[in-house]
TrEMBL record:
Gene3D superfamilies: 3.30.450.40, PPM-type phosphatase domain (3.60.40.10). PROSITE patterns: PPM_2. It comes from the Bacteria. Residues 1-23 are annotated as: Disordered. InterPro entries: Bact_Sigma-Reg (IPR052016), GAF (IPR003018), GAF-like_dom_sf (IPR029016), PPM-type-like_dom_sf (IPR036457), PPM-type_phosphatase-like_dom (IPR001932). GO terms for molecular function: phosphatase activity. Coiled coil: none annotated. It comes from Cryptosporangium aurantiacum. This is Sigma-B regulation protein RsbU (Phosphoserine phosphatase). Residues 225-441 form the PPM-type phosphatase domain. Pfam families: GAF, SpoIIE. The lineage of its organism: Bacteria, Bacillati, Actinomycetota, Actinomycetes, Cryptosporangiales.
Amino acid sequence: MTDAESAASAGDQARPQVSGLIPPNEAERLRAVRRYDILDTPPDGAFDRIAALAARIFEVPVATVTIVDEDRIWFKATHGVDVTQIGRDPGLCASAILVDGPTAIEDATLDPVAYNNPLVRGEFGLRYYAAAPITTSDGYNLGTVNVIDRVPRQTGDTELETLGDLASIVVDELELRLSAIREVRLERRRREEVQRSKGQVEEVARTLQQTLLPPRMPQVPGMELSAFYHAAPLQEVGGDFYDVFPLGGRRWAISIGDVSGKGVNAAALTSLARYALRGAAIQTSDPSLVMAALNETIVADQAGQDVPRYCTAVFCVIEQTDSGSAQVRLANGGHPPAVVCRADGSIERLTESGPMLGWLPDSQYPTLETLLGPGDGLLFYTDGITDARRYGQRFGEGRLAAALADRPHNNAKSLVRWVRNLMNEFDPPGYDDVAVISISVEPAPVQERQLTGLWAAGD
């Protein structure tokens, strides 16, 4: 036996023996590699520092952290060499993952397996190679932490133990990284689920909101109706509502209201209030009695609730007269006052009111009366208008009254559009929902107005 053969034989006995190049659990091992999602990722300072530390401890020019893929060896970190990946050739990393624990090749030219590796036989001239497998908690060798030199050298047990410790640190880093990846993925799934749930809630909200408002405004002969509704954020169904319905003959009912709070519970009370008003109006057209009945309904509904809700509302009965005017009777339960916009440009606020609905049983609601002449309009709104804020300033009743006094037109559509534009200029609609409804009496024909003027002059 030659000296070289004797040295090779001694080297074989010094490190664990392996057979073949593919671990018996290769399929499971590759799944573990994929599980950590580490292949082809950008450089990472934590792994770079481990490679640099290994080179410093072993006093070698080259150290690497590798992952053994199906047909390649990919370098997660390198020190002293600029390489990204190489083929899965025998003798070095591909062989090191076949054994448990660190291993060393003190002279690769004397190792019968390593000698055929291109890094040994080729220009690189590798002579010394020591590696510790990167072993997961469930026993799969993903790759190696390596130290490399171009001259032969010996390795002690303490050095191999240190290399194993560095490989364990790599595993810890991989676990931390995997935990972070899982957390990110979980958060992404949570957000996607929130978006899906939000979409479902918004769809329910849209459907529910549609039940709280009339599908279309009715046509009232001799009068004009117009309304505007700005919804709260869709995932928070608002509590504002309005309604218009006939009472028979030449009488029409208009209601507007605002339930405290938002969400499905508020919407349920909103629906109850809207339909309770309709039900009460079938029994009587007296606004004060209709409001008293609604109050008792809400008091009974909210009894025993952990967080009772309340409602403000106006119920109005408008009856057309033979003279072309309209008689108005209304009752107010804690709601912002209705505003009469006269054809001559003046405004009147109908401020008398009873208490909020659902607050106290047996509450009384006075009936107010006024007459709308030709060209007059009547405006109702919820507090989303007056509570709008900009730079801490509230839109307020005073600003609304001043704006209405400066209105260019008096018909219902113009009044609603005027209020809507003013509010948007002050502050775009925010969190609260907003409802506005207006009704106006058609102006007298031009000829009639001229005759009226002549009679007035004659008087």
